[in-house]
User: Fold EF-hand domain-containing protein from Diceros bicornis minor.
Amino acid sequence: MGRGREPAVLQSQGEGTALKTPDRSRKNTDYDEMIGKLSLRKQRFMQFSSLEYEGEYYMTPRDFLFSVMFEQMERKTSVKKLTKKDIEDVLAGIQKAGCGSTFFRDLGDKGLISYTEYLFLLTILTKPHTGFHVAFKMLDADGDEMVEKKEFFKVECHLYLFCILTFRFMENLQAEVQEMEFLQFSKGLSFMRKEDFAEWLLFFTNTANKDIYWKNVREKLSAGESISLDEFKSFCHFTTHLEDFAIAMQMFSLAHRPVRLAEFKRAVKVATGQELSNNILDTVFKIFDLDGDECLSHEEFLGVLKNRMHRGLWVPQQLSVQEYWKCVKKESIKGVKEVWKQAGKGLF
Assistant:
């Protein structure tokens, strides 16, 4: 991707804050202190970025994949400073790259992703496919179901990683990350053991009941039972519809009704239009049955899923139903404004 307009460390606090590239040659304590002042997403971006050009930090496609698979980068190497020729060579190589669900893996370190673009890609990973259509139509000025680079320039979003953004690209990105995570937790096998699935599900979780979840995994899940890639992808599809699913769960809470397997299955179908396999449903229920009453502890389940979907970058809050939806609207608007602000333009 191309050169963004957002360096990486805050010079001062507040709206419209200028950002400044930190000097990593200073003591680690100084660098860590600066990183600690950033938002969770900016911290993650800075931890995984490996390139610098004219004082601004960038990720490679490989860096991006690692940033959504892991919480932190171990054995961080020094940042590579790029020249103008390096940039030109990278962009020339991208022109030849083919699209598909291995796009980021095929590019590897041949690409640049700015912080603005990082936010955009994270958004793609958390939205249902129906949500893509709205954003896509906003950018598709020609109505040809393709968004060319020139159309992105009009909204100051400098996506140099790929020359043409299509709706299929968004689907492919979700599929690629899902395949990478499946391979990561299945240890490279074509199936994932149920305990591997539990490890993936709880990877970013730090709730007080985490030990109970793992106790359920040890005592309730049978050894040798597995989950296929298709089942895993179906569950990931479900996690992009949590807002609709949360509404269904709130109805059970207000009615003081327990959420049993049949109700859960129906709520998933209503929220996503698809069904989860009994294999997945059985696994989820056994993990999140805190009381042993064969009912889902759905509030904590939703919290775990949100944290999983946002790769540990979601901050939970205790809200009422009305406050929750106000927060959803507010954060959605903030997310859009942040991308536009990073690109250097207002919304209108």
User: Anything to note?
Assistant: Residues 104 and 303 are 29 Å apart (CA to CA). The first strand starts at residue 9 and ends at 10. The chain has 17 helices and nine strands.
